[in-house]
Prior knowledge:
This protein has helices at 5-17, 36-48, 63-75, 89-95, 133-149, 152-166, 170-190, 205-215, 222-239, 245-257, 269-276, 305-315, and strands spanning 57-61, 82-86, 100-105, 108-115, 120-121, 289-292, 298-301. The chain is mainly α. The protein is 50% helix and 11% strand.
Amino acid sequence: MRLHPATRSALRAPLDAAGKEVIEIVLPxxxxxxxxxxxxxxxxxxxxxxxxxxxxxxxxxxxxxxDLTGYAAASYMRGVPFIQVPTTLLAQVDSxxxxxxxxxxxxxxxxxxxxxxxxxxxxDTGTLDTLPARELSAGLAEVIKHGAIIDAVFFDWxxxxxxxxxxxxxxxxxxxxxxxxxxxxxxxxxxEREGGLRAILNFGHTFGHAIxxxxxxxxxxxxxxxxxxxxxxxxxxxxxxxxxxxCVERVTALVAAxxxxxKAPDLGLDRWLELMEVDKKNEGGAIKFILLKPLGSPSIGSxxxxxLLATLAACVG
Length: 317
């Protein structure tokens, strides 16, 4: 991962001019480390260095680092400023924007956290030059998601340009990042604390979070689980009569072209249901899904048990 010299200067100049001390806290990246122990490492360093309310935390890294740092900032002394500097595609198009922060729990992903907005988000697309191919694909899952739920024209563009995106064409990536941020920012503007509309951003996540927790955090990247989860959600949308089979095939083909898995792991039926019952969207014990009705337009609600079971049977490899 490389930061452009101008980005480094923009980050350090205000600190150097003010004679501020910079304390570096190095954390391991990966969903398996987005936990209480890593959070305590941040608090330990802040307290050991007698950091006060004027301290600003800078999250330099992927989505896990951003979520951890944001939650630490929301909690330390009941709130200190923080800045997001996302260095992965997934973080640049999704997790750094919107103010969701938190950690995972063994029983559920992102179930402990806070809504806390950063002072700024600085996305240096140059960092994507050194991003591992698997991480690039994981980020494309969230790009595809934005087109699928909000903007069918953008979905068409992704289909037409997936080769350029996979080849890291700078212009294609810049457009994908900009449009994704526009879509997410508009949704968050209308519903910052996920009282209703913002839940549509979880398309593919009910299945995806179950995959991550069921396999053990870190076995699949978040974007890989979301990509597969979108295929499952499209299948469920079709079984509900919301979209045609051809639409499911389009979603599946695009997810596969992005280098993401399209067949879900066999967690066992009872385990699948148990994991999906631990989800922030659920109400009154009913599992709620984000579905397509049609492509480019989302629907939120519960589904008949027989359709869910049929979807699991069709999608589990």
